[in-house]
Every structure is written in structure tokens, then in C-alpha cells.
Amino acid sequence: MSQSAIKEKKVTLLDLLDRILDKGVILDGEITLAVADVDLVYVGLKALLSSVETAELMKRTAVLRALPLEP
Amino acid sequence: MDDHAEIEAVRSKIAENERLLGKIEASPVEIHDPGDTESADEQGCYVYGIVNGDDGLLDELSVSGIDPGYPLNALPYGSIQAIVSKVSLREFGQDALKANLGDIGWLAAKVYAHQTILERAAVGRTIVPMRFCTIYRSESRVMETLAEYYDDFEDNLARLEGKQEWGIKVYVDRNVLAGKIAEISETVRDLEAQMTEKSSGTAYFLKKKLEAATDEEMERISGECAQRSHDRLAGRAVEAVVTPLLDNEVTGRKDEMIFNGAYLAAEEQLTAFHAELESLWDDYGGYGFSYEVSGPWPPYNFVIIGPRRIAEDEPIGDKREEGHAA
Fold first, then answer.
1. A48 and chain B in contact, CB less than 8 A
2. Residue B242: in which H helix or E strand, if any?
3. At what angle do helices B14-26 and A54-66 cross, to 10 degrees?
4. Distance from CA of A12 to the nearest CA of B (A)
5. Which of B132, B305, B311 lies at the smallest CB-CB distance from A33?
6. DSSP character for B131?
């Protein structure tokens, strides 16, 4: 494993969701994501991923994983 | 709506989402017309994060809010300021939000916007990031909250200064590990040696025993890899937390996630932190383990407010709990 490969920054939608949905929770706003809402997001992701054939799934996952942080 | 109906609702949006997914790549933030007609009680105040001072922050950000109809704003209180923007409650109200969360296209665009705003605000500055969709009824309610938690915000800003969060996920390719298991495990080696010596009748039972032992040893070695990876990385960081695993249905990967951790590293620790990661690759990479790095992140996992430690440390290897949606 080269240094450059480790330092390569690949931020994906999954990485983002894994952080900002149920972490960085510091205060309860008056409208916030409930635990149930966060679960719903993951149910939605699974539904999205499981609703397609394998070949399509690979493509979809690639899109989810490759979603660039910078336009 | 019950869980089942919610899942169905999500599913019914999939076709639409596919189209949107394609669109997001080209244009991350959807243009939305807020109209001039929204009254104050149809608006919420979205809070992105808290930073020190009032230093021309908004000029630098030059980006619209998460609801593109409204600009970013800073609400100063004492020596800190909240980065906020108004949002339409037609889109971000509790019920609308719940519906929108099931729409992957909407979700992707909005988490992207939230992160982009935090990232730009965090350039050369310490930030206390808020969770996605922390929304108050009014700016004055945000000000009250700043006053209430003022000391906590100051403490966090001081503690987090000059530090970065990095995420490490460890995956295992079970086929590769299975192929290497005899090399690592004495138990498995012994069983294999016995099999070559014994008669075919006994060999059958030994084979079963070997299969069970192989599974057990793979679990043990994965657990050891997770624990040692965490310990070694934590040794190169100021703070560390173990966070829940994501299962393959969510990651869409063939390899199983065996560890998910977050590390808060001071700038002067970064070289050693990355070197430790390389050394872990050298030690475990050959046995089917792979490391996925992300960062630097705003310190989502390392904000402590009041008596409550928000980023609760999880036992290593626990999955997110699901299915308790009301």
C-alpha cells in the first residue's frame, strides 16, 4: 500500500451519511432527525440497492460511492 | 404510517431517484424557488455549526444555504457565532423532512450542501459541526441556545482547535482470509495435519470440525485485527471512538465491514497517523483485510456538550440497531 493510495481522499455519499446523520449531534433543535428517521434513510438505501439486478447494483453502488464532494 | 408503508413509499420513489442520482453529479444543489410569500412561521432556522468570532466569514463562504432560496447568515453571540440560514418548512418541517429523507436524490443533494458549507467554513478555522437538519423555529431560539450552551461551545472550540477527524473503515475479504487461515491458526493447522493421517471415516468428522474451527478462527482474527487497528491508530490520535458497523446491504460491497472508527488527530500527529495506517496495511493487507480512509472531516464524532457525551463509544463490531422505527 503506497502512501499516495492511503492519502487519496475519496468522500462518498455513504461516508457523508455515516457521519452527518447520527453523529455531530450536539443539540436538540426544534426540528431534528429522530432515530426512526435515520433508520428510514438506511431502509431507503437498502431498498435502493436491493431493488436492482447485480450488474445494475454494481453500477449504482459505484455512483453512490463515487459521488464527488466537489462539483 | 407504519414501517411497511414507509418502505413501500420509499420503493415507489426509486425510479424517480435514479433519475435524480444522475442529475446530482452534474448539479449538486437543486434550484428551488422559495417564493416571496413565505411568512416567518413558514420558515425555520437551520444551524450548520458554531465558530469563533465574527471575522468576515460569510464573504469567504460565497455559497447559498441548504435551501438555495435563502443566503447564509452568521448569528454572533459573545465571542462565538452560529452559521445559519433560513429554510422553508414546506421542505424542512418535521413531516416534510420525513418524506424527503426517503428520497435519495433529495438526501444526497442536501447532505452534500450541509457538508460543503461546513467544509468551507472550517478552512483555517475551528468548527463545532451540527448534525444534519438541526433546525429551530426562529433566529431568536438559536440565540437562546447559544446563550444556554455558551461555555460548552467555547470549551469545544478550544479543545478541537488545530485537530482533524479521520474515518477508518476496515473490511475483510473472507475468501482471502480463509485461504490464509492455516498459515495463521495453529488450531486449523493441527486439524489439517490430523486429516491427512486418519482414515476416511474419521476424516469426515475432522472435516466438519475443521470447517467450524476455520469460521471461528476467522471471527477471532477479524476481531483481533479490528481491536489492534483501533488501538494502534488511537495511539496516534488525541481521541478515538468506535462507531457502528454498516452492513453489506448498505455499503453495497462484497467484503464485510469489521471495523468503523473515527480519530481526532492534531496536525503534528498526521504524519505518524498515516504511517501507522500504512504499517497496519503491511501487517494485515495480505490476509484479506483492507482499510478505507476518509477525511479530514469536521469533528462530527468529537463534540461534547454538557454531561452528555454525544459520540458514545460503541463496543467494537456492533452493528447499527435498526427496526425500532415508530
1. yes
2. strand B239-242
3. 40
4. 9
5. B132
6. P
By the 8 A CB rule, do B278 and B184 touch? Answer: no
Interface residue A56 vs chain B (CB under 8 A): no
Phi, psi (deg, nearest 5) at residue B179? -70, -20
Give the dihedral of Cα atoms B248, B249, B250, B252; nearest 10 deg: 70
Query: Residue B168: which of A65, A18, A1, A46 has the closest Cα?
Result: A18
Burial track B166-180 (b if 16+ CB lie within 10 A, e otherwise): bbbbbbbbbebbeee
What are the grid coordinates assigned to A36, written together? Answer: 426512526
pLDDT for residue B324: 41
Residues of B in contact with A65 (CB under 8 A): 252
Distance CA B150, CA B138 (A): 18
Write out pLDDT tens, residues B111-164.
Answer: 989 998 998 888 888 999 998 999 999 999 999 999 999 999 999 999 999 999
